[in-house]
Amino acid sequence: MNNRILSAYLPKTYQYKAEELSLEICLQSNPFDLNPDALFALALRKNRRRRFLFVSKVLGKHIPVNPLLPLLTGAALAVQYAKVLLSIEHPCYAGIIQALKTKQQMFEVFELLIQKPLMASPEKTLFIGFAETATALGQSVFSLFDNACYLHTTREEIPCLKSELDFREEHSHAVNHRCYFMNSTDLKTASRIVFIDDELTTGNTVLNIIRAIHRQYPKKNYVILSLLDWRSAEHRARFKQVELELGTKIQALSLMGGEFKYSDSTKGQSANVNPSWEPRIFGQLSQEEGKPLLERHFISQYYPFAESELAAVYSQDSSGWLNKTPYLRLTGRFGLSWSNHLKCISLARKIGGKLKLMRQGTKTLCLGTGEFMYFPMLISTYMGEGVSFHSTTRSPIYSQAGTDYAIQNGCSFPCPEDPGIINYIYNLPENYYDEVYFFMEREVRPERLYPLQQIAQAKGIFRAVFVIGISSPERRFLSDHKNPPAANP
What we know:
single chain; eight-stranded mixed beta sheet; six-stranded mixed beta sheet; 11 helices; globular
């Protein structure tokens, strides 16, 4: 990807190019004077609805980052929202922005955020983060407020629960979103709903969920917080129309905003994609199913949780197989109160301290899995220096090495929770990390972990640790030569 600045003052114009795709961005809003190249890069994705993708450099999803960076990015959105719409300035406001710009003293600022008094929202607020990319971003925004609760949407199917809201993200690789509330009064009684996403392009997704909510539980105020807001004048006018139609107020804030136009020379024909851009495939050969993990490379660390921290519901994969091991309630998938969030911080500090003592290398990668991002990210901040964090994803993106293109390489593999769904890991350099910690919310069948270990070995990582939350207290630790037990059918 190549980019260059065409003007010096706002509005600024930037040009980006990735093979047949060209983008021109007119930057109109940049309240913290952040460098666009520090926030995002461009990539091509396998999606006919929208071929381009703004890949965030601060989310910890596709690109490895210091785990404190996405947490402070969410905090920046939170303090901007508080200052602009609530007239509350957090005492760490300037420190957060400075830490984001310089990448200095991030841990000190983060610890201050935990210790400082919360920003009291004048009305009960429900924060909703969008799966799968913004689950952690949403929770990091919510973490600065009291009189609030948090939920993230999910693409998982949970047969024993009724989804309170169902809506679609038309341009996505996985269009269906569900909202499961263990306590549906949070949705009913909230006076204001704040949506958090990494990017607004047309705004159709958030309008879809606003309509879904408004049909059942109409609100007077909706707010959208995003890292990037690329809505055109036409799209912004549509928001005004929906405001009038529903008789409500919809406000949007972002760290950076403007408009873009793009040209695609392959429009109407097949894209000319180099085969080397395809992610390397792992774990899809039938003869490898059930193949035992190599003892030398495998450690499994289990952490039992108190029953109050587990949601005793089961999931169903695309083959119909039921996994009855509990979900972790602290993720926000079923709604999260402030007291639950405090438990999340305390538990993450405890687990992170234990994993820090287990480390055997100076360069450690921590990988979240799918929607399970915030809790692993939080744990990673307490594992010491030299830790990078990012996550697996469902998003199919082309990779290209050797340029400033956002996705340098990629690996695809069957999702451990549902082998019928293909997952990806991007930007995993060869012979760089000493060890990798895979964080999984629940137990799965042991053979489903094999592709992840294959990937680690192929990248020259000779120590793989699986950190998995379970409910059975007797399964605290399995030594290097043991494989994890199968999940209960």
